[in-house]
Structures are given as C-alpha cells and as structure tokens.
Amino acid sequence: DTAVSQTPKYLVTQMGNDKSIKCEQNLGHDTMYWYKQDSKKFLKIMFSYNNKELIINETVPNRFSPKSPDKAHLNLHINSLELGDSAVYFCASGQEVVNVLTFGAGSRLTVL
Amino acid sequence: GIQVEQSPPDLILQEGANSTLRCNFSDSVNNLQWFHQNPWGQLINLFYIPSGTKQNGRLSATTVATERYSLLYISSSQTTDSGVYFCAVVGGSEKLVFGKGTKLTVNP
Description:
The structure holds two protein chains of two kinds. Chain A contains no helices and eleven strands. By secondary structure, chain A is mainly beta. In chain A, the strands form two sheets. In chain A, strands 2, 4, 5, 6, 9, 10 and 11 form a seven-stranded mixed β-sheet that branches. Chain A has a four-stranded antiparallel β-sheet with strand order 1-3-8-7, with no helix packed on it. In chain A, β7 and β8 form a beta hairpin. In chain B, strands 2, 4, 5, 9, 10 and 11 form a six-stranded mixed β-sheet that branches. In chain B, 0% of the residues lie in helices and 58% in strands. Chain B has strands at 4-7, 10-14, 19-25, 31-37, 43-48, 52-56, 59-64, 69-74, 83-90, 96-98, 102-107. By secondary structure, chain B is mainly β. The radius of gyration of chain B is 13 Å and the shape is globular. At the A-B interface, β5, β9 and β10 of A face β4, β5, β9 and β10 of B.
C-alpha cells in the first residue's frame, strides 16, 4: 500500500532514556515532516526535510535530532526523555510545490 | 507568524444535521488544507483549497482568500463524521500552521 508508515505506534519509557521513531513514505514525495500533537490536540511542526536536507527547524530542544538517510525516510531520535515529551508524534510527507500533506498514523510516546 | 483561528471549538449535532466550520487566518496564504482527525487519531486530508470551492460527497469547502477565511460544510452528518477538524495554512514561511481544531460530535 502507498502510505506514510511510522513505527512504533506506542512507546512507553522512563525519564532519561533515549528513543527513536522511524518514518517511511513510498509516495515518492520530496518533503517529509515531524509534527508534535500535545494533550490539547494542538499540532505543531518540529522539522521539515526536503530531499534529505533540513529546511525547517522549529524551536525544538536539541535533545530531538531528526535524521534523513534518504528522501523516503525521516527518523526522529530523542535523547534524555522528559515528562513533557509525552505526546503523539506524526510524520507527514508532501510534494514540494503543492505540498498537500499525507500523515502517518502517529506514534504515542508516554514518558513515565 | 500567521495566526489561524477556528470556530466553534466544539460542536454537537444529531445525525442528519448540517454544519459549517470556520477558519480565519491573519495573513495571505498560498496553501490551505482541511483535515479530519478521527477518534482513533488518524489525520486525513479532506481538501486542498487555497481559494474557490470544492465538493467531495457530503463535504464541501470554500475559501475566500481576499477576506482571509475558509468554510467547511458538512451535510447530513453521520456518526462517522465525529472527530476533530483542522484547518492548516501556509503563509510566507513555508510551514503548514494548524488551527486548534473544531471537535465535532455526531450523536445517533
């Protein structure tokens, strides 16, 4: 199926741990994104990559590090997890010009 | 940066009713999208509509870019329409900025 797929879907971990979320799209899109959705459902962009190059980097703590090995993959690594990092993280992709976004199913991170 | 305001924040309907959701934005945009987040959390793109009117089944959307607003119409609502509807825009920053959403509950 053509889609944006994220793994894992659920992640429960302790404060201070390091974790990664992976994202892959097979839609042939040039641009990929990470969004964070907080407990009030507010969606905020974190990062955007275009053809493996970082183009948007919001005011996100440097404990968050995105990595794009190729234009079909954008992974998110989080160091030294904090309680406030608990959220749903969405990966998305889009074509550069029109930029209609397709979202993955989300990864719910719970930090205890 | 660009501000996006959606109204109403919450809406409760009986099945079969019609509704209008509104999205106001603070600056000119070159990209506007409506999304539906279902109760399971999946975000589905409904419309890409920087201007004009589009229809897809019971849903339609209109954007009046010169007046900086967009409307999403849902006719003959069904329980499966429940969820949160988001409007998102791109201004000059190339970032898709989301509104806070309208939570729709359709009761049988």
